[in-house]
Amino acid sequence: MKKISVKNIVTFINKTEKSRKTFLDNLGKPNETSLDGGGDYWVRSLSALSNAVKVKNTEPIKEKIADILNDFKPGIIKQTRDMYERNLSILHNYKDFDVSNWLPANAVIVSKNSKKAVIDISGLPVQLTPSQVYSFDDGEEKCVGAIWFLAKLEGFKKEELGIFAEALHIYLSANFENSHRISAQNCLIIDVLNKEEVNYQMIVDGEIPSLLFATLENIKSTR
């Protein structure tokens, strides 16, 4: 296995015992744009939200709404129309949202270009692609946090979002632990369809079960 995304780790959980090996065998093979939380299907809304966090205002969201509305041309196929409408629905949910609610007051966006995006977790190469990473000062030390926007047609269960939060904390630890304190509360996962928010502190406090490592062990035994 070259790498596995966190999205596919979550998908694995929801597969039947019989279909799990087939699913793992098919990872990495070309497939069509999907609605399962990644790929190009949700990119227009998720990228706009990410850019809104980067500039700390909702102008990128409003601009993307205008761009998508402009793309509604006569004769577009139903699949494309549905995709546009679903992305618009997400963007309208957040067009008047105060994005500063997601960030500490003194947050500074950090470039991800030089950071490790594939990290060995329990002997498996896991790909991690948070939307934005930022540093901030909590008054005592330099800290780091991140936001990860997700979309899935039927939404995510809270414990599934917890898997992303665990993985995000590992990503930040692997890339920043020598220079920053990793803020568990600021490892934030957002299901943008359900407007559900989960952070790693909820794992620490036992509010959400820790499922990542047990799932990775299951994946290794299934291969």
- Give the uncertain stretches in residue-range form: 32-38
How many strands, which pairing sense, and closed or not: the largest β-sheet? 5 strands, mixed
Structure summary, number of beta strands: 8
The domain count comes to: 2
What is the averaged pLDDT score? 93
Supply the helix-strand structural class: alpha/beta
Could you give the order of strands across the largest sheet?
Answer: 2-5-6-7-8
The Cα radius of gyration reads 18 Å
Strand content: 15-25%
The helix/strand series, from N terminus to C terminus, equals EHHHHHEEEEEHEEHH
N-to-C CA distance: 9 Å
Question: What count of helical segments does DSSP give?
Answer: 8
Residue share in helix: 40-55%
Estimate the global geometry from the Cα principal axes.
globular
Secondary structure topology:
Elements: E1 4-5, H1 6-13, H2 17-26, H3 43-55, H4 59-70, H5 78-94, E2 108-110, E3 118-121, E4 124-127, E5 132-137, E6 142-150, H6 158-176, E7 181-191, E8 196-199, H7 200-204, H8 212-222
Parallel strand pairs: 1-4, 6-7
Antiparallel strand pairs: 2-5, 3-4, 5-6, 7-8
Helix pairs in contact: 1-6, 1-8, 3-4, 3-5, 4-5
Question: What would you say this structure looks like, in words?
Answer:
It is a single chain. The chain is α/β, with parallel strands linked by helices and 223 residues long. It folds into two domains: 4-29 and 104-222, no CATH class; 43-99. The chain has eight helices and eight strands; from the N terminus they run βαααααβββββαββαα. The protein has helices at 6-13, 17-26, 43-55, 59-70, 78-94, 158-176, 200-204, 212-222, and strands at residues 4-5, 108-110, 118-121, 124-127, 132-137, 142-150, 181-191, 196-199. The protein has a five-stranded mixed sheet with strand order 2-5-6-7-8, with helices on both faces. Helix 1 packs across helix 8 (212-222), helix 3 (43-55) runs parallel beside helix 5 (78-94) and helix 4 (59-70) runs antiparallel to helix 5 (78-94). The longest helix is centred in the last third of the chain and has 19 residues, at 158-176. The termini are close together.
